[in-house]
Amino acid sequence: MPFDQSFEIKPALVTARTPSVVSLLASGLLCIAAAAAAPRVPLQYGCAICGGILLFLAVFAKWSERGAQVANARLRETARRSSAHDVGVGFVSDGAGVVQFSNAAAMDRFGDSQGRSLANVFELMLANPGGVLSQVIAQASQTGAQTEDIVTRAGHFRLRLLIMSAQCQMWWLDDASQGGL
Asked: Mean pLDDT of all residues in the chain?
């Protein structure tokens, strides 16, 4: 089965079809304005009820969006704390593969990689980092974790992935050529 070589995370279908908070809010306000201008009482009630429901949905969507952001921030902080003092190379990335944190060993080996994609971080080490990373992610989608042994001219490495959520991934790179495995 060929893997996508672009290392591009595709958005979930549910969030792609969900209306934005602004559109829900605008639609709710428009329904309430229509209720005020409607000539008949049943039409006023109908528009007011629809407007109220849309305003409630806008508030609920914003509240749940904020809750998801807080939960993802807590999860990334937990991942950062658990890999901060690891002696091996470790990264915490978001769902798009952008490095949010790299531990001291990763900083020594790859320099400051925060804000860069993992494919860019590994470009000097691997011939096709996007392909390798997308393959590891595809294989980890079933169980939430994956290990891949990589042999290059520079040595033998083990790349490990733990998917903590859609927006938090922990990556480790172990150097097997130094007897680390």
From this structure: 85
Coil/strand/helix, residue 115 = coil
Burial class (CB in 10 A: 0-12, 13-18, 19+), 41: exposed
- Residue 13 backbone dihedrals phi, psi, to 5 degrees: -70, -35
13 half-sphere exposure, CB direction, 13 A CA radius: 0
Residue 85 scores a pLDDT above 80: yes
pTM attached to this predicted model = 0.70
How is the beta sheet containing 99-102 ordered, strand by strand? 99-102, 89-93, 168-175, 155-165, 145-152
Distance in angstroms (rounded) separating the CA atoms of residues 83 and 87: 9
In this prediction, residue 167 carries a pLDDT of 85
Locate 131 and state its tokens.
């392909």
Three-state DSSP at 2 gives coil
Task: Please say whether the beta carbons of 94 and 100 come within 8 A.
Answer: yes
d(CA 123, CA 113): 12
CA-nearest of 138, 2, 164 to 71 is 164
In this structure, of 7-21, 95-109, 116-130, the range with the lowest mean pLDDT score is: 7-21
